[in-house]
Design brief:
Helix content: over 70%
Shape: elongated
Number of domains: 2
Largest sheet: 6 strands, mixed
Number of strands: 6
Radius of gyration: 28 Å
Length: 404
């Protein structure tokens, strides 16, 4: 056991002397801690939606014979402190003044009194940023009315969502959201490996002292950087193609091709090309950032830790879609968000995805420019030592600040 302790001590010292390893340890805690508020907000929004809090509700009798049933529904909802009124008019027109419209169709009362399935039609005005809450509200209507009417399992709701200028059923919206989240998750299997490969391009050469030899050759530093970027582009394109092909095979194998057909009925060919370009742009950014940050490492171990630092924002992008789709144009420039907008283009349209992809490519160009500049200077060799001195200086200052 003494030998194990000595070897373990040696391995830990080798790992922890890399400043990037320490950053990779700290960053997940910081990110997940910061996201705690987001999940608390999500839980609160879904709970409020299920209890119909914050909604202005109109109940519309679909025929004179259903007016009594409509008044009963209004009374039941008011008993739950809902903001509800009896109204007349078309649901689409009413959605300009109300956020939720309940239509009592002809035959609802007859079916309910005869013990048959009775269906209400619900129209909900929702925003892209609150998709989770939007899908919970129709269930809240069923819950409140089933307890009050006593129809139990006979009560049905046919729900439609008015979102981003379009009306679609809750079922279709749920399918698009599920497909979009699947595509966003699939991007992680591209971004992480490409970032790791790019980090190794620098990390292995620095550990073997080959970077100094490479930089001493009569080659323009720009060509060296370009060769590394081109290799990352090739790997990124292959990984993006593999991701899309694998996602299709998964869907086809799950239900004998029915899910795959349904998936491609939601996405046009242009939207799938857009998604491919978004993944490629994200992979390029991840690889360029990994190449840049790898200059501050000394070994393969340090370079591997860069992967987590360079791609951690991609995980944040994945978590953002749990609550809804961010609609603030300022978020178009956030790294890896182009994959989110491309994945949900059937809901958002193609403009946000195109704008976000363009911003991602511009950011990649900036990172490549900084990488080439550093590679053309002494920082290519001394960056890791400089980072280590800075971390030691901060540690020493913290120790001196301690009382006693």
């Amino acid at each position: 056991m003494t030998g194990v302790r000595l070897l373990l001590s040696k391995e830990l010292r080798l790992l922890l002397r890399e400043g990037t390893v320490i950053l990779a340890i700290i960053l997940p805690f910081v990110m997940y801690s910061a996201m705690g508020g987001m999940f608390a907000k999500l839980s609160s929004e879904v709970s409020r939606a299920y209890r119909l809090k914050g909604y202005s509700i109109a109940v519309v009798p679909g025929a004179p014979s259903e007016e009594q049933a409509a008044r009963m529904i209004v009374a039941l909802l008011r008993a739950q402190h809902a903001n509800v009124r009896l109204a007349k008019g078309s649901p689409k027109a009413l959605l300009e003044r109300y956020t939720l419209v309940i239509l009592v169709p002809r035959g609802f009362t007859r079916n309910l009194t005869r013990g048959l399935n009775a269906t209400l039609i619900v129209y909900l005005r929702a925003s892209l940023s609150k998709l989770a809450a939007a899908t919970a509200a129709p269930s809240g209507v069923v819950g409140v009315l089933a307890r009050g009417i006593g129809g139990g399992s006979r009560l049905r709701v046919e729900a439609y969502i008015y979102i981003n200028g379009r009306v679609m059923s809750v079922e279709k919206l749920s399918r698009i959201v599920s497909a979009g989240m699947g595509l966003v998750d699939a991007s992680i299997f591209v971004i992480f490996p490409v970032s790791s490969f790019a980090a190794l391009l620098i990390g292995s050469e620095k550990e073997e002292r080959m970077l100094d030899v490479l930089l001493s050759l009569p080659l323009p530093r720009r060509d060296i950087a370009l060769s590394k970027m081109l290799s990352a582009i090739i790997v990124g394109a292959m990984a993006a193609a593999s991701s899309i092909a694998g996602f299709y095979v998964m869907l086809a194998g799950a239900t004998g091709g029915r899910s795959a057909s349904l998936f491609y009925s939601m996405y046009t060919a242009e939207q799938m090309v857009e998604y491919f370009v978004a993944i490629l742009a994200s992979a390029l950014f991840a690889s360029a950032l990994s190449l840049l940050l790898s200059l501050f490492t000394e070994s393969v171990r340090g370079a591997q830790s860069i992967t987590l630092i360079a791609t951690l924002p991609a995980l944040a992008a994945v978590f953002t879609v749990f609550t809804g789709i961010p609609v603030n144009p300022a978020l178009y420039a956030v790294p890896y968000m182009c994959v989110v907008y491309a994945s949900f283009s059937p809901l958002t349209g193609q403009t946000p995805a195109i704008a976000s992809i363009t911003a991602q490519l511009v950011e990649t160009g900036i990172v490549v420019y900084v990488f080439v500049k550093l590679l053309s200077s002494e920082a290519a060799v001394t960056a890791s030592a400089t980072l280590r001195r800075l971390l030691r200086g901060r540690r020493r200052a913290a120790e001196e600040a301690l009382p006693g």
